[in-house]
Design a protein that fits this description.
By secondary structure, the protein is mostly beta strands. Helix content is 3%, strand content 65%. It is built from one helix and ten strands. Strands 6-5-4-3-2-1-10-9-8-7 form a ten-stranded antiparallel β-sheet. It is globular, with a radius of gyration of 15 Å. The mean pLDDT is 95.
Length: 150
Amino acid sequence: MGELWPVPDVLAYLAGRWRTERSVRDLASGATGRFEGTTAFDALDGGGLLSRESGAFTWQGVTRPAGRTLRYAPGRAPGTADVCFADGRPFHDLDLASGRHMADHPCAADLYRGEFTVRDRDHWRTVWRVGGPAKDLLLTTEYVRETRGR
């Protein structure tokens, strides 16, 4: 992938609007899908960001509207974040000071293992490997900055 780009303040880096493209591969069946849309990281009162992803997801030839909302709160260390689902349940921590971060999220009997990498000021990526009795997936998301939110 090339050299990593360190991010001293993850919330400042993410703020703004990003073009979002995700490939989804079911490793058990070989089925593939694709999400295309945008993710807006907007300031929350009291600090942090609200991430709203919206677009279209195509799976097995059927395209449907799709989206999700996450909350990014300031983390325990300066420049980091704690990511939660919209309802407040914890998802994972995020520290991009080195340009790369690994995070795990147990979900019932499945495990989500994520890798976050930053290529430069306007490009970053997540790769989630989901494994367990219910799922065997690989989700790769590319983010490209649309506008500056600083």
